[in-house]
């Protein structure tokens, strides 16, 4: 019998119950027993739901109070010294240790042992998803010790409820790979031999609880791995070979490629692969994985919201069934953590659109249908589901709300000249300087001003129908006036309107484009209690009318200074949405680019002299495998240039990127050919500028002089120090002075105080250097 299993289910709850409980607990409005019971209820509900959907082996260990990697750090006793004051009397972690590691701890809340605040562990992206994990911190003398009982307790909990479970743990190599060596530098791999006995212990304990299978996630097998890490795989799994339990190694987010030989030869009982991301690996797997092992095929996409094309998914399964027979398992491509929870709750989607979608709960059903289709092809349930699936595919292929001939024709007509400014930067910048008449070291901000409670309340009231559209409009205009006034008083050179009218830099534009749809409850965990609700790209994208021109024109009318128009770029729009699967990312990016290009041109026609096109997600779009970088960078750069190239030379195009790891993509950043780029540099102490220097970045740069992620107000001297470093690497006439990201999450007083210092720093630079 082919078996249906699931790599993991979203923990947050269909109603974001976990988010709400966590936040109430942190505020002190909910006690720990109540929080624990919310967790227990969610786990029980999720197991039942998966079982009802027809999943045979249920995951345990996919629940986490904050993040699954953090749970592992607690399990292994990888708890940085600075949290020693938040443990129990035996020095073991408690729930508040976990939260302190995730969120930082103030001395007030945990009696911090040094009497100072303990900063949280670093958050970083989980592979190429928008989920963020807490980076384990290793020291050279790192000691591992089984320190956290959660997994075993949850196995007992599930068993007591009568479920057959498969515990899920992150494998030793992936866990080490995700962490960071702290203190004197050393190779993390040296820790492997000390870590493996803990895995042995865990497997032994699980076996004692009556478990048969364990899923060991090693997603790094889909990355380009250094040779010593490949070797370590063999060593690690040989050493775990004689520990009890059948081990299923799970890989996802890409193909095994050069690691395939290694993966199929590991001494384990089964291998899971992601056939959604890498369908091309199937023949090699069928050829090389011994048939006494289990082959688990991830055929239902765990990372998107589209209903599975059952017919297409079954093809690969049938082929595999010929060889693997009962040793074939069916699963989602990866954990369903990255999908929203339950489509049934969407009461405001029209029936047609709803019939095209599947969230986690529906995906479990699809997994089970596909396994039944192998075991009992004639079953009525299978016949019905396949008939429905065929109808859905057909309706999508023909739907006029997806396929728009005008949009396609316009994309087809794109020529290389469309992504080419009229003249080269050297000529453009002279025209721009003459027109803009800015001082040396011009000051500006990244776009948003503080989103105050009253702004959010106004928007909420308007959406609930309690505030009329006119009143909302007036309230936002008042906010714009306030932002413009503030900037004039501060003495900034290039002003922004402050983005008061925007809820989110992607959603705001998505709502105005044709081809997007929105769910009401499609939340996906981003980190901890934070969830995002990405917009869904349903069909060909276009801009029915101008999106920002009225606001920006109004802002410009309030001042004689230059007002910068503010847009979100195509790559960022795409990365932070659920994309289509029936056309490539490149096509979607080009459609978005044309829509944004029209907006840039409209802003220019309205007299706006500078337009910023934010590409916050440009770097994160990089594929996991290096071999795929060029293809991505080519279309991503082209999409940006398409947006930027519809205007005259004297119109200045800015872009903004809020991160600092540029070294590997600097040539592509330069190829975007924005006249000015603003970047994050303050946290890395201008280190990033090394990349700009080594590569000889040709255009203007605004290296962020202060970190907006913290309420701290840096003084003028601090900003001067950073700018003086910048001046050593980049010619002064090409430097701008600005914060390192938008100010929307900050409060007004600290923002204004920091900007006063920033303007003063720029003035001093002018006096000293210009
Ligand atoms: N213009 C946006 C803002 O200022 C940019 C945000 C971002 O890069 N994440 O908020
Ligand atoms: Zn930013």
UniProtKB/TrEMBL annotation:
Q: Is-annotated flag, keyword Coiled coil?
A: no
What family classification does the UniProt entry report for this protein? Belongs to the vitamin-B12 independent methionine synthase family.
- Positions binding Zn(2+) in this chain are 656, 658, 680, 741
Which BP terms does GO give this entry?
L-methionine biosynthetic process; methylation
What are the binding positions for Zn(2+) 2 in this chain? 658
EC number of this enzyme? 2.1.1.14
Enzyme type, top EC level: transferase
Provide the cofactor list for this protein.
Zn(2+)
Pathway the protein takes part in: Amino-acid biosynthesis; L-methionine biosynthesis via de novo pathway; L-methionine from L-homocysteine (MetE route): step 1/1
- What Pfam families is this protein classified in? Meth_synt_1 (PF08267), Meth_synt_2 (PF01717)
Q: Where does 5-methyltetrahydropteroyltri-L-glutamate bind?
A: 16-19, 125, 130, 530-531, 576, 620
Residue positions annotated to bind L-homocysteine are 446-448, 499, 614
Organism name: Pseudomonas abietaniphila
Q: Where is the active site?
A: 709 (proton donor)
| Gene, per the UniProt record | metE
**Alphabetized UniProt keyword annotations:** Amino-acid biosynthesis, Metal-binding, Methionine biosynthesis, Methyltransferase, Repeat, Transferase, Zinc
Cobalamin-independent methionine synthase MetE C-terminal/archaeal domain boundaries: 441-763
Residue intervals of the Cobalamin-independent methionine synthase MetE N-terminal domain: 4-318
Q: Superkingdom of the source?
A: Bacteria
Q: What is this protein called?
A: 5-methyltetrahydropteroyltriglutamate--homocysteine methyltransferase
Q: What is known about what this protein does?
A: Catalyzes the transfer of a methyl group from 5-methyltetrahydrofolate to homocysteine resulting in methionine formation.
Binding of L-methionine occurs at: 446-448, 499, 614
Q: Bound how, and how many: what does the cofactor note say?
A: Binds 1 zinc ion per subunit. Binds 2 Zn(2+) ions per subunit.
Q: Does the keyword Nucleus apply?
A: no
Q: Which GO terms describe its molecular function?
A: 5-methyltetrahydropteroyltriglutamate-homocysteine S-methyltransferase activity; zinc ion binding
Sites binding Zn(2+) 1 sit at 656, 680, 741
Q: Which reaction does it catalyse?
A: 5-methyltetrahydropteroyltri-L-glutamate + L-homocysteine = tetrahydropteroyltri-L-glutamate + L-methionine
